[in-house]
């Protein structure tokens, strides 16, 4: 066994014989079966619009907006030029006790489209950092308003909130959690996925609003005076597209407000037009206290995240002596000038091309195309909302995830990139997708489903 591993590593380390082909050995890939991947790699070398180019010069339709982030499509020159200009104007400047114009400008521009009017913006460099930031702001807020006993955080089963210790603690993915210590004082609502009652739902499923009452049970169990915040993804993406039942988010808002518990929406996936409004907050008409974002913020071009806070939350922390730092939190790259330049250019594209509402105008065609796969082999559920879809397959006996993984590889070979999680295929194309490309996604997938065992 050990010998085998050494042999394989040695093979990966061997020079590839072509100077433009780096060894695959050194990059320890994230969330990847490294040894399996490196034995049969899938490599993209370029991207434009809706398509990637592979190392063997094939075009692959992007059915996943990269990793739920390239909402305006690939290779946007306006973003590239803004980044280039910014690098040559001001490449980096600190934002700890210093400032630069473009960070203030980007925050001001974001404030104009802020989810639910939450117009105070804290910059981060990723979705995980945005989640950690939102959780910490919630704890700091409770302390600031004299509610220092509120230290518990409530998450939800089957949630993904990134990989920081806070995010994985409030998250609900067992593989992400089991070998890492958890934050103390965290509890979880039940997830809302209910195939028996909600199979093949278009848009929000009818059943399950009552699951929000779990928050009342948490209050009854722990005491409201111990709970700082509850965090949910309005639509859970990474765990297989779980769409909130009608009335669920509204009820969560009512209950959290009643008990003085802050409501945090993790909009890392749903932010920036994915559902057909700028944010899920606007789409569902439910306003939380904090919103965590990243990904589409810069069209994925430069790593960046942002947390939107209500004025009530922000202002509660702007107390105390004026020469005191109000929040002991931040990142070297909070408000990085180059990321801000990418973000402003991205926002201009979204607004000028009407991309925040494009998912709404395509939603029916999208749902029709993807729901046409309901009778394909292995399919046990299809769910759609905005420009997102989940296609859930029956797992193979004793090999959970194997069928969807095979579908993923087959789709890639046939010119379509999808995401899979467990036995669920998740789709979220860039918002610039054309109707003909929606049909192409459905037809490639139909062929894939017929061919996988
Ligand atoms: N929160 C949600 C809902 C996500 O989907 C993700 C990533 O997919 C994250 C947080 C983590 O973002 P990042 O990978 O940028 O840290």
The distinct ligands, each listed once, are: pyridoxal-5'-phosphate
Helical stretch tally: 17
Extended strand count: 15
Superfamily (CATH H level) name of the largest domain: Type I PLP-dependent aspartate aminotransferase-like (Major domain)
| CATH structural fold name of the largest domain | Aspartate Aminotransferase, domain 2
Largest sheet: 7 strands, mixed
What count of domains describes the coordinates? 2
- Global mean pLDDT: 95
What would you call the structural class?
A: alpha/beta
Strand order of the largest sheet: 4-10-9-8-7-5-6
CATH class of the largest domain: Alpha Beta
Describe the global form: globular
Span between N and C termini? Answer: 29 Å
Unreliable parts: 1-12
| Percentage of residues in DSSP E strands | 15-25%
Radius of gyration: 22 Å
What's the architecture of the largest domain, going by CATH?
Answer: 3-Layer(aba) Sandwich
In terms of quaternary structure, the protein is single chain
What is the share of helical residues? 25-40%
